[in-house]
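Our platform keeps sequence and structure together, in a single record for each protein. Because each token names a local backbone shape, the row as a whole describes the fold. One such record is reproduced below, unchanged from the form in which we store it:
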Amino acid sequence: MQWISRLLGLFLLSTQVYAGNVNFYSVLESMPENSFERIEAGVVRGINLADRTVVISGFTYLLGPATLAKPVEVKLLNSSFASLELLTIGMKVEIRYLLSPTYRIGKTITEVVAIDQY
């Protein structure tokens, strides 16, 4: 039971790190020029549509405004249509992202059948 409270505490801490108004464009400008795309698999643990952030396996990802020329791409299993609003807590996903000095910037979120396939 004690591990559950510790896990919950870590989850709440990870979601509070990115609370507040983060200027997405300032984060992009702070990115090193040699940034490369990374891929992680995990479980969706939190979604904040107002701040456009998602917590996947304890890490918070900035998704940028919906008005970007190329907003975050979401792909769902057995569906030709997908959007950020259709993600659900507990969903197994793969996320492609860029790592800035202080943030993870999500580019593509893809639902997967199982995480152990990686």
In short: Residues 5-19 have pLDDT under 50 and may be disordered. The longest strand covers residues 37-48. The chain has one domain: 2-117. DSSP finds two helices and six strands in the chain.
